[in-house]
Amino acid sequence: MNNVGISNWSGSRTLAGTVVTPTTLDEAADAVARSSHVRALGSRHSFNDIADSEETLLNLAHLAYRHPRLSTPTDGDAPPSSVEPELDESTGRVRVTGSTRYADLALFLHDRGRTLPNFASLPHISVAGSVATGTHGSGIGNASLASSVVGIELLTADGSVRTLTDADAELDGARVALGALGVVTAVTLQSVPAFDVAQTVYGPAGFDDVVAAFEEVSGLGYSVSCFTTLRENTFASIWVKRAGGELEDAWPAQVAGSRAMSEPFHPIPGVDPANATQQLGAAGPSWDRLPHFRADHMPSAGEEIQCEYLVPRQHAVRALEAFRELSGPLAGLVQVAEVRSIAADTAWMSPMYQQDCLAFHFTLVRDNERVAAALPHLDAAFGPVEGRPHWGKVFDADPQRVRGLYPRRSDFVDLARDLDPQGTFTNAFLRRWVF
């Protein structure tokens, strides 16, 4: 099935390439071999042109696994073939098709007493697209989703498959590959034994109180997120998610001077919390608590544009002050902003490469013109503290500055040229920001 023009998840951007939707891996290989330029579509949760192509957009929805408990896709495609993941019980490694959503994989693993170390705030996103852009969850001890990758299968430009495992030095180059090495048809992830998580939401808390106690606040649980609208000098809510032995400890009476909320809360103040995962300290499976949003409901706001910067943790205080000063330039644009912690990883093109980071995430109104005008202010705020833009979200920065932030960039470029000498998988985004 071919069609022209498809939008991203929030409707903020239309991709220009021609969509090809194969029903088998052989059909996908044939489509790649017949195209001079190809990019793969995942859950279409990117907000910039990283997924766009001058020719072919390969939609692998038919190759995704769908868990029976979750509904069928709503993007107009026929239900996928539900190729079941393969779990090695002896090692805990699970092989899954790249277009599979984390929500479906999480349920598959849960049925077998396993899970993943962490999840992003939205479980609706695809595995391949998430790891390729350095997507992450939260927690001072939790690295990006790509850190769980122990194997990747790439459909290369001639239609053949190249497999990289953790026995290959190049795997660190392929974990966060921005789609530049080939179409990721399957990913092998290291799972862990299933564990429970409980979350309690505190707030509101004064901005200064949170900054003063930030190290303590960010270490209160397995995962901690602080939300603010930047319209007042407060954090509207602080989400503390506890796991393991932490569940046996009493919850803090206060966090940065704020008390636990007695009713469920949505990250965006005033929005119905029915879409948010269960709170009030009730323990449940980690896959159903670590994300902020339920897999079977609309995530976040829907009509939105997202921006995010990752800042080395050593600059935390300066970055938090710069974050506060964005209230003016972003006035009328912020639905909610979130501050999270992410541990260092080893992926060459990860913003967290060899350094712990803070993530400053912005959910903005879906107004492309006004958001574009504000983006230079975000880079001016976070650039001086070595801020790296999230690869899948909107930003406006000096390409030379961005390229210079990645010490293994030249190694990555060499790997891309080795695996894709004709540049089949390159596009305008990669030529501007990487190559």
From TrEMBL:
Residues 69-92 are annotated as: Disordered. It comes from the Bacteria. InterPro entries: ALO_C, FAD-bd_PCMH, FAD-bd_PCMH-like_sf, FAD-bd_PCMH_sub1, FAD-bd_PCMH_sub2, FAD_lactone_oxidase-like, Oxid_FAD_bind_N, Vanillyl_alc_oxidase_C-sub2. Pfam families: ALO, FAD_binding_4. Residues 12-194 form the FAD-binding PCMH-type domain. PANTHER family: D-ARABINONO-1,4-LACTONE OXIDASE, L-GULONOLACTONE OXIDASE. This is D-arabinono-1,4-lactone oxidase. It comes from Georgenia deserti. The lineage of its organism: Bacteria, Bacillati, Actinomycetota, Actinomycetes, Micrococcales.
